[in-house]
Amino acid sequence: DAGVIQSPRHEVTEMGQEVTLRCKPISGHNSLFWYRQTMMRGLELLIYFNNNVPIDDSGMPEDRFSAKMPNASFSTLKIQPSEPRDSAVYFCASKEYLSYEQYFGPGTRLTVT
Amino acid sequence: QKEVEQNSGPLSVPEGAIASLNCTYSDRGSQSFFWYRQYSGKSPELIMFIYSNGDKEDGRFTAQLNKASQYVSLLIRDSQPSDSATYLCALRGNSGGYQKVTFGIGTKLQVIP
Fold first, then answer.
1. Chain B contact for A104, CB < 8 A?
2. Which chain B residue shows the shortest CA-CA distance from A56?
3. Closest to B43 (Cβ–Cβ): which among A31, A41, A91?
4. Which residues contact B18 (CB under 8 A, 6 or more apart)?
5. In the predicted model, what is the mean pLDDT of residues B1-20?
6. What is the structure's pLDDT at A70?
7. pLDDT above 60 for B96
8. Residue A48 has pLDDT above 90, yes or no
9. For A48, which of B34, B100, B103 is closest by C-beta distance?
10. I need a surface site. Which of A90, B2, B50, B106 has the fewest CB within 10 A?
11. Which residue of B has its CA nearest to A98?
12. Is B99 in Cβ contact with A55 (below 8 Å)?
């Protein structure tokens, strides 16, 4: 099994630019999670989907952030416009709905200058 | 008060000693508790899961849960240098739906050879 796949692994962009992060969950997993990790705030849940439907987006910091899951094998997290305070590692995780174990992808390290 | 409180460390222990990592939480309705290990530059991986009061052992790892006192701990026996990592305490509570997991900031463990 390939595990959760995220791309790109590293992204450096200038303030004001649009950033799109991508995630492919493990096949057969029907819950998908987007997290952001920083030294100051730790690992924070941004949004999660069940069966491609957004269930809880209360962690999305502001309207500049949006997430979609058009099908069971692909999700995107978009930041428009990006700001330096968005610099963090963004993780995608997936799991089977009734399972307790989440499997994390390798993360995308985002730097906004 | 944060939902999940951990001392960020670092916690330094000599090789072969017992490492004790602690976590407290605020939501008395929390259902399930997790310990994730995260090596530097890597993604979190689940190492222990507990939902009943008492101890749960898995190899060198023991998770302890006390719901009355609202704390969870992780003991690592015979600590090895390869155990050096950040340990994230997490819980699944009553808010945000069945799937939402809230993480602590993590405790950095250093095992000294």
1. yes
2. B96
3. A91
4. B75, B76, B77, B78, B79
5. 92
6. 96
7. no
8. yes
9. B100
10. B2
11. B99
12. yes
By C-alpha distance, the chain B residue nearest A103 is B45
Q: DSSP readout, B95-110? A: SS-TT-EEE---EEEE
Tens-place pLDDT, residues B18-64:
999 999 999 888 889 999 999 999 999 999 999 888 999 999 999 99
Q: Outline where chain B has alpha helix (H).
A: none
Report residue A7 as tokens: 């791309």
Average pLDDT of the residues in A33-50: 95
Among all chains, which residue has been given the structure tokens 């939480």?
B25
Task: Give per-residue pLDDT as tens, A69-101.
Answer: 999 999 999 999 999 999 999 999 999 988 889
- Are B99 and B1 within 8 A, CB to CB? no
Q: How many helices (H) and strands (E) does chain B have?
A: 0, 11
Q: How many C-beta neighbours within 10 Å does residue B79 have?
A: 21
**How far is A110 from B87, CA to CA, in rounded Å?**
23
Token digits for A111? 């730097």
Alpha-carbon distance B87 to B109, whole Å? 7
Which tokens is B74 given?
């992780």
